[in-house]
Design a protein that fits this description.
6-stranded mixed beta sheet, binds 2'-monophosphoadenosine-5'-diphosphate, 10 helices, alpha/beta, 6-stranded parallel beta sheet, 12 strands
């Protein structure tokens, strides 16, 4: 039986084992997918051990996505461009890395939510690993503008410099926000994990603006309460979680799993 895993720290609450077992069952594939609590500073050793013990591939979540990028011998375009890897797979015995976060995000937004980024003005809040994982995919959909707003200005600046060749990306400071009218707000910060209140003026968004939070479950409550209060349509990151998982599964098994409503329901009960 093929062995897969997800490395992260923390990892206890990961929904990935449930998602991948569900996909496998639906496709009549026998596999084991287990959560592995990675040790900080020992990713390479532990990842190598898993493969030595017969692992066929694995996912990587916080905080090891950059370590995984260094670990893989061959990186796909999605990994190279984001300098991070969430899916390790073997090709002729060689360790390869891909990043399915960006395509997962776009697929959820475009196919599930039916929202087209083209010609839209986007405000993306946050400038950490989560932002890095999706920015190239956003820019590939031809938005009018993508403005990055982050608590720490320098981090937003670095991110913009990394991606400025890919499209209309720029940084925005707090006092310039009031001059804007955005169509789409994307939250990539981790502020909801600590239940920190989310605040942005309603006036900087168009009447029919929508909000997408990469967080889900309790971590998305800060942004969802703000969106509700301000009458902005809100979507959490559960759809992206499912779509990026479906892409990883496809890379490993060559079969596209179905992301069904019943799977969504099962996950919602776990959150
Ligand atoms: P991830 O890989 O999940 O993106 P990260 O690299 O630690 O994690 O980045 C977290 C992001 O959330 C950062 O943009 C961080 O802002 P800073 O760059 O200023 O640290 C943002 N963030 C976390 N807590 C926040 C808070 N209370 N208010 C505003 N931004 C916050």
């Amino acid at each position: 039986m093929k062995k897969y895993a997800v490395f992260g720290n923390p990892i206890k609450h990961s929904l990935s084992p449930l998602i991948h077992h569900y996909f496998a069952k639906n496709l009549n594939i026998n596999l084991i997918y287990k959560p592995i609590l990675g040790t900080l500073g020992k990713f390479e050793k532990e990842a190598e051990e898993f493969l030595q013990q017969g692992g066929s591939g694995f996912n990587i979540t916080l905080p090891f996505k950059q370590d995984a990028f260094k670990f893989s011998k061959i990186n796909t375009e999605s990994a190279k461009i984001t300098k991070s890897v969430n899916t390790i797979f073997l090709k002729d015995g060689v360790v390869c890395g891909a990043n399915t976060d960006g395509v997962g995000f776009i697929r959820d937004l475009k196919i599930n939510i039916k929202y087209d980024i083209k010609n839209k003005n986007i405000l993306l809040v946050g400038a950490g690993g989560a932002a890095m994982g999706i920015i190239p995919s956003i820019l590939s959909e031809y938005p009018s503008s993508l403005k990055i707003y982050n608590r720490t200005y320098e981090k937003a600046l670095n991110l913009c410099n990394d991606f400025k060749n890919l499209g209309p990306i720029s940084i925005i400071k707090e006092n310039y926000l009031e001059k804007e009218k955005f169509d789409l707000l994307i939250n990539t910060t981790s502020l909801g994990i600590n239940n920190v209140k989310f605040e942005l003026p309603r006036g900087i968004f168009n009447k029919d603006a929508i909000c997408y939070d990469l967080s889900y479950g309790k971590a998305s409550h800060s942004v969802s309460s703000w969106a509700k209060k301000n009458n902005i349509l809100f979507y959490d990151g559960l759809g992206m979680l499912l779509e990026q998982a479906a892409d990883s599964f496809f890379i490993w098994e060559g079969k596209k799993p179905l992301v069904t409503e019943s799977l969504r329901k099962i996950l919602l009960e776990k959150l």
